[in-house]
Design goal:
four-stranded antiparallel sheet, 0% helix, 16 strands, mainly beta
Amino acid sequence: ESYPIWAPDGKTLYYLRTEADTAAILAFRPDSRDPARTVYSAPAIPDLQDVSPDGQTLAFTVQDTVSSTIRAVVMPLDGSQPPEPIDDSPGLTMRPRFSPDGRWLAYASRESGRWEIYLKTFPLTGRKWQLTDREAFWFEWHPDGDKVCFQWSGTELYAVDVDLAGATPRIGATRVLLDDFPTPVTSLHDFAITNDGQ
């Protein structure tokens, strides 16, 4: 059991349970006596990443066990639709994260041959924008929604400013946010930003 994520209202905990030949996303209410319920199951779910700010949509990653293709997807929690790929490009996609206002999705993609962060509107459309100007995989939205912090390897944590007020994002220059932030390139690495943005 891994990847615990709280719903925005703090009442439901979503997490991933992996068995020998199947995986399932479960929902558990700590204040209830009811057992955890299965939200979605598949042969392979590499990770669970985010819940939309309105608490209606999950963002996670699925893997085709035949082709090993990995896709970032979103799925409504009411079960009205199956998981929808965020990007249909041939490259791998992972780590889908909603912006704090829920109007945008950022995700990691290998479309160019290296990992970079892209941005799409939500609900999904065909339009997308490259957010990073260098290799990046680990990233997090700043709570104010005005920047995305990211890194790949080495000791530098970067930030790129984003203006999302209009229909088209305006992406600023990349700058070094922290220069002594070691990054082991493993699947176990991650970082988070406190709600006060400090």
